[in-house]
């Protein structure tokens, strides 16, 4: 038990250090490249923190268990909005300064709705619900639209060193300031998050098993949240530093990446069978994405009250999972 506690502590330390390095590196990278922190949050940070989900899903598809990818993607997206965004807003309300995130949230809603329809074969044909290769290509098309629009925004921001938003202030980007230190910080941060997350989850599972906690409880709590730890730590640290664009961009970008790219790629490799109860999970995921629209437009961002509402919704979802 002493060794497990030591590994748990080391994992937590690596997570915090990795999150700090990633947020600092992302902020420097945004300044150096002449783009907003939201662009970096939606791309570099979001994709980097979603690597655990990508690795798990691709490995599952390659080994003949593509259904694991479905639970991984849907569960992570529900946790990202209900748990992660809820906790982040409780720590510090997130002000949405950029209109870009108000475009990406509707895209997330559209992608979630598309996944719900594509995975509803049983509802309209009576056959087994499957996200097949054609469905996967549709999701990848959505992802290409997201990347194209984000690239256009980045190009516009870089042109002429135009002012970009950073939190509550407007700064002038300096493209010439881009250097290896920002890239190194991002790389070290991602490595710390990946290594720390694995150590923490492995140690937590071992301690739970030693304490006689049922396997189903471990899977629905520690393992389910484990792959979302990089997003959680990064968003909490970004919120504490007042860098709301990185925090929001990380969560919205991660969810887009999970559904459009990870589920799309997995289905393109091998059709994904929707498990029993999967339609309800998709409904919850889509409902949480829809809730983001009024929340983001009210009071200029996400308040503590809205964070508490998201947490209550997530708690209800977890309780339903145990009941099911």
Account of the protein in words:
It is a single chain. The protein is mostly helical and 324 residues long. The chain is 78% helix and 5% strand. The protein is built from 13 helices and six strands. The protein has a two-stranded antiparallel ribbon with strand order 1-6. A two-stranded antiparallel ribbon has the order 2-5. The chain is globular and about 50 Å long. It starts with a helix and ends with a helix. Mean pLDDT is 79; it is low at 162-173.
List keywords for this structure.
13 helices; 324 residues; two-stranded antiparallel ribbon; mainly alpha; single chain; A middle domain of Talin 1; 6 strands; 78% helix; globular
Q: What is the topology, as strand order, of the major beta sheet?
A: 1-6
The helix-strand sequence is HHHHEHHEHEEHHHHEHEH
For the sheet with most strands, the description reads:
2 strands, antiparallel
CATH topology: A middle domain of Talin 1
Secondary structure tally: strands: 6
Give the C-level CATH assignment. Answer: Mainly Alpha
Overall pLDDT confidence: 79
**Percentage of residues in strands:** under 5%
In the CATH hierarchy, the architecture is Up-down Bundle
Helix/strand class: mainly alpha
